[in-house]
Amino acid sequence: MSAQLSISHLAKSFEPGTPNEKIALNDFSLDAEKGDFITILGSNGAGKSTLFNAILGKFPPDRGRIVLDGEDITYQREHRRAIDIGCLYQNPLRGTAPSMTIEENLAMAYTRKASKSFFAVNRRDSAHFRELLATLGLGLENRMKIKMGLLSGGQRQAAALLMATIARPKLLLLDEHTAALDPATSVKVLETTKRIVAENGLTALMITHDMGMALGFGNRTIMMDSGRLVMDLRGQERIDMSPRGLVDLFSDRSGHELSDRTLLALR
Amino acid sequence: MLISALGQGTLYAPMALGVFIAFRILNTPDLTIDGSFVFGMTVCALVTIAGHPVLAMFAGILAGMLAGLVTGLLQTKLRINPILSGILTMTGLYTVNYMVLGGQSNLYLQRAASGDGGASAPAASRTIYRMLKLGENGELSALILSVLIMALCVALLAVFFKTRPGIAIRATGDNEEMVRSSSINADLTRTIGIMLANGLVGLSGAMLCQAQRYADLGNGSGMLVVGLASVIIGQALFGRRGVTTGLVSAVVGSEIYRVILQAAYQIDMPSYTVKLLSALIVTAALVLPLAKEKSLAWRARRTGEREGSR
Question: Architecture of domain A1-84+169-246+261-267 in CATH?
Answer without folding.
Answer: 3-Layer(aba) Sandwich (3.40)
